[in-house]
Request: fold
Amino acid sequence: MRALIVDGYIDEPAAFGVPPYVSPYIRYLAGALVVHDVEVDYVTIDRMRKESLWEIANEYDFLFVFGGITVPGRYKGGTPLTLSELQRILSITRRPTKIVGGPIVGGYSLRGGSVARRFDIQADYLVSGDMEAFVVSYFRGVPDPEAKSDYELIDAVAPYGAVVLEKHPNFPHVICEIEVSRGCERRTFCSFCTEPLLHGRLKSRDVQAILKEIESLYRAGCRAFRFGRAANILAFGSDRNGGKPSPEILEELYSGTREVAPHLEVLHTDNANPSYLVTYEKECRKIVETIVRYNTPGDVFSFGVESFDENVLKKNNVQGSPEEFLKAIAVVNEIGGVRVDGIPKLLPGVNLIFGLPGETEETLKKNYSYLKRILDEGYLLRRINIRKLLAYPGTPVYEYLKNKKHRIKSHLHEQWKRKIREEIDREMLKRVFPAGTVLKKVIVDYREGKTSFGRQLGSYPILVGIPGNHSGVLDVVVVSHGERSVTALPYPSFINSMSLEELTAIPGIGSALARKIILNRPFRSWEDLKKVVPAETVNFLRKLGISLQQV
Reply:
């Protein structure tokens, strides 16, 4: 038997599956099929669009479509499956048994900026449970679309899911999201979050099972991993420790990963709870130290701050206070701010939500004030993620807002978001990635005009604009900063061979001076260059590591 998996991508509070990420759910599904002697083929929705493969599923015995977005985002690596595309695939597909799963089954797919809740999916099975559990039930002869997986099942199938990797269009430049837990450790849940709605209370996975999965992915060619399927990495194992952190378990996880994947290139994580860190500061310091010892540079803790307004926090059941959030940011900076190859090992990121119940214009001012305080006190944030509230059916905030109108106008959200981007983000990027920082192995994703854009593999990698027509993978050196991106040049670069666009991208060299440099090349010494270029600009070029090149 043969099965086709169509990856429509997922994005949840604790799991990411848009390229270059490969979600654990897709791999579990593939692994369950392999275990039942089904030949697995795999295609992303982007490849299906690009190559017009809408009818390809008719060549198979089974069609599995998986996707759904519960956290809104802007995606550069791929475009998630839409409802109309899902309906198109299903209407064209005739031969195979059609199975659809993921958050999209419950209406979790963004359409026109809102949540689509009513739509008709014409499939043989709509799996509201876990796809791998459904596969097991199907081959036992009792198909159960609501079947849920336990970690015994997941651990049994996960190592076999590596078969999809080489079929991914980005391979080998992919990141495998690794599940370490499901659910949330908080005593009470945030009003807007789908994690407890989908997964309930925290349940941690066995470390040795995780390492066995990582080893299989590593053998299949994966060199980038992120512990992202967790609401709070600091709480991993706490459900077996009375709710308290377990530094020993995190040590076993991270050191073990280095043993089974000795030449990995990326080891990052995602979510961490700042309030939990402060509550159990002693234990969490040990955990952060462990992560910084074994991870790779550019790692990020996504802190679900959501708001710096205590009234909003209380109204939406978000644990913690603004001062606790600042304390957690300081701790991570203290331990994780150490630079390797010029890049901090681990920095916090701040997530904010605009439009939460209880928000006033004063809330927006407080958000800005606290971010400005973080900047003024010299702490680094890798990123500030600002999104508008989307209330999903089943969450408390959805019920609360059913018959209420937002009191804050969207233009105020945009005004304060713009102020943060202009006055906080750019300066923060200058401090995180100062001019002269070398970013290794930047993968070019796309081109716009005369500029190529790429990112490194990693957790929330910085967008890099590179003047000129580039492709593949290259090292670059940062020369200037935007609000959410940096401009960089190929590294090494040489004055005597740089293009007009590359020269113009360097601060202090406009188009007129760039042309003058080109007309006076080659330069045999820095003193020769100073006859054409101001001395301070020459010094800046040398700081960037730009050379003359032998002539």
Observations:
- The longest helix spans residues 410-432.
- The radius of gyration is 25 Å.
- Confidence is low (pLDDT under 50) at residues 110-118.
- Residues 517 and 532 are 7 Å apart (CA to CA).
